[in-house]
Amino acid sequence: EHGPIAGFGVASFGPINIDPDSPSYGTFTTTPKPGWTGARFHDALDEFNAPIVVDTDVNGAALGEWLKGAGQGCNTLAYTTVGTGIGTGVVRRGKPLMGFSHYESGHILMPRDYSLDPFPDTCPFHSDCLEGLAAGPAITARWGQSLSELGSPPEKVALIADYIAHLAANLVLLHMPDRLIFGGGVMKTPGLIEAVRKATEVKLGGYILAPQLDPGLQRYIMTPGLGDLSGITGAIELGRSAAN
Asked: Side-chain half-sphere of 180: how many Cα atoms within 13 Å?
């Protein structure tokens, strides 16, 4: 109906190889999702004879928000999803950043008070990483329900917010982005984004003085302007870049 496919843009969960110079570009690596390790997007899409750009879901969401969402006007933007997993994408003037692979913020190790939170965590790879302590499955495993289903009790919201704020403060210190955006199902919990702002400001301790960091961080730490469409918006842009 719309003519031949000009290009594919893939914004995928990971871990996945996103180095276009690598022979295994587009291949899943150590993902805990059963059956996906070793799968490659190109194997499924090469039959269309169209160029393919593969990136992470959070890089795609960061790109979408930078183009059309809450990240418009930013030079550097960090987008974090807190849902079934946790990950962060960082874009600089529309270009997703990476090193030899994509960033893995969900597996940053967390400082813990075991008397306050004795939960053993759910990550099959690490003890005390952010994803194993604060992602949706970890919350359900710890308390039997999601935060929203529990009625968003302040003390439980504050515990999860403190873990997420540890990441937020480190993103500021490592990347100095113009804005932090937090999306994903867990971040829809009433009161959570406000608690993250408060805890992040405390952790930064007034060390960073910049106009971007408004008092209370209400303009600095935001939810997605595109709602649940951040990722697909970024993936379409990746497809355009593939076609061009």
From this structure: 31
Residue 99 has pLDDT above 90, yes or no: no
User: Which DSSP symbol is given to 52?
Assistant: E
Through-space distance between the first and last CA atoms of the chain, rounded to whole angstroms: 21
Non-local (6+) Cβ contacts of 139 within 8 A are: 146, 147, 160, 186
What secondary structure does DSSP assign to 94-118, as a single string? TEE--SSS---GGG-B----TTT--
> What is this structure's pTM?
0.94
Around 46, how many Cα atoms within 13 Å sit in the side-chain half-sphere? Answer: 6
Cβ neighbours of residue 107 under 8 Å, at least 6 residues apart? 123, 125, 126, 129, 130, 131
150 secondary structure, DSSP code = T
> Could you give the CA distance from residue 126 to residue 110 in angstroms, rounded to a whole number?
11
Q: What sign for the dihedral angle of Cα 202, 99, 59, 210?
A: positive
pLDDT in tens, 189-230: 999 999 999 999 999 999 999 999 999 999 999 999 999 999
Going by C-beta distance under 8 Å and a sequence separation of 6 or more, which residues neighbour residue 244? 7
